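Thread amino acids onto this structure.
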């Protein structure tokens, strides 16, 4: 049992700290929300009420959609774009989706290859792009959830300030929505770009996200160029 778990410790680790962070956010968010309620002469709300409220949902979805957009764009960009010297990139000259032989699909598939990799037609096409499709779908669902929950929060503030509420399209086109959205997007793009660039010149011994310490800066991968 331990041996099997050890083989999946990377996923287990990030799954655990994700749940801990989400729980911490909900507790801290509840405290901040109730402080605001008291300041406005309103009653405190319970934990269950808060975590199912638009206030909590919009904050969570706002972060999720930017994260999955980051991965969607990074996966797509690394098909066609390269960065010489970065372990996050294919070698210059290897741009593109590769041949069937290189990707081990269809008649080139191994006996242990996934079933849909051995298939032809639409099943192979879908499976060949499944990572990008799932990342894109999660981004769209999170973005939509953010926009719906954000509309509710925005309209509550509008009413409190004697302003008319807006519909979903009105909120999506508002400066408030794009201010919240773009401040997350720019930080994600900065993080990915920094990882690509820094990994050309900097190293972390033992990490799969880094080249071996002695690898020349200009070498894009550990393979001979």
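Threaded sequence (225 positions):
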């Amino acid at each position: 049992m331990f041996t099997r778990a050890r083989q999946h410790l990377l996923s287990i680790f990030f799954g655990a700290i994700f749940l801990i962070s989400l729980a911490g956010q909900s507790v801290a968010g509840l405290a901040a929300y109730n402080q605001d309620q008291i300041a406005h002469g309103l009653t405190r709300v319970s934990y269950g009420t808060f975590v199912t409220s638009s206030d909590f949902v919009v904050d969570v979805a706002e972060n999720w959609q930017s994260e999955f957009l980051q991965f969607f764009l990074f996966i797509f960009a690394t098909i066609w774009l390269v960065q010489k010297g970065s372990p996050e990139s294919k070698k210059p000259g290897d741009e593109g989706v590769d041949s069937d032989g290189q990707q081990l699909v269809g008649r080139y598939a191994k006996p242990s290859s996934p079933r849909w990799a051995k298939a032809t037609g639409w099943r192979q096409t879908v499976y060949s792009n499944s990572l990008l499709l799932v990342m894109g779908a999660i981004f769209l669902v999170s973005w939509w959830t953010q926009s719906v929950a954000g509309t509710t929060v925005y309209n509550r503030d509008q009413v409190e300030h004697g302003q008319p509420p807006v519909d979903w399209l009105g909120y999506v086109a508002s400066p408030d929505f794009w201010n919240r959205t773009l401040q997350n997007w720019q930080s994600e793009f900065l993080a990915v770009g920094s990882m690509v660039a820094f990994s050309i010149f900097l190293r972390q011994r033992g990490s799969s996200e880094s080249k071996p310490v002695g690898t020349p800066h200009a070498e894009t991968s550990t393979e001979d160029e």
